[in-house]
Amino acid sequence: MPPRMTASVLKVVAALLAARADERYGLQLMQATGLPSGTLYPILVRLERAGWVESRWEEADPAAEGRPARRYYLLTAEGAASARREVTHMTRSLLGEAPA
């Protein structure tokens, strides 16, 4: 089931689309979207359950890195296509254009 498109979800998918080929971790997405972690992470979970996003834990030793391990997120091919459609639809709706 596709996620409900809210303004916050739209910000997250737009940030992921902006760097389509790059994995992004939570702090990067918080900075790109302006969303707090309590908003961002539930959205990422919903996007992952919908098949739009894949995630993985980095393979680094937190003690050696001096920070907690990062979880990286990447749009799936299906997620990228769906996200592009949603961003286009929402942009057209906001501009008052007829759907294509």
Description of the molecule:
This protein has about 100 residues and is an alpha+beta fold. It has one domain (about 5-95): Winged helix-like DNA-binding domain superfamily/Winged helix DNA-binding domain (Arc Repressor Mutant, subunit A). The chain is built from five helices and three strands; from the N terminus they run αβααβαβα. It has helices spanning about 5-20, 25-35, 35-50, 60-65, 75-95; strands spanning about 25, 55, 70-75. The chain has a three-stranded antiparallel sheet. Helix 1 (about 5-20) crosses helix 5. It is elongated, with a radius of gyration of 15 Å. The chain starts with 6 loop residues before the first helix and ends in a 5-residue tail after the last helix. The mean pLDDT is about 90.
Strand ordering within the main sheet: 1-3-2
Order of helices and strands: HEHHEHEH
Give the CA-based shape.
elongated
Number of strands: 3
Give the C-alpha Rg: 15 Å
Q: Main beta sheet, described?
A: 3 strands, antiparallel
The proportion of strand residues reads 5-15%
Could you give me the name of the CATH homologous superfamily?
Winged helix-like DNA-binding domain superfamily/Winged helix DNA-binding domain
- In helices, the fraction of residues equals 55-70%
Number of helices: 5
* Mean model confidence by pLDDT: 90
Domain module count = 1
Structural class: alpha+beta
In the CATH hierarchy, what is the architecture at level 2? Orthogonal Bundle
CATH topology: Arc Repressor Mutant, subunit A
What is the CATH first-level class name? Mainly Alpha
**End-to-end Cα distance:** 23 Å
Low-pLDDT stretches: none
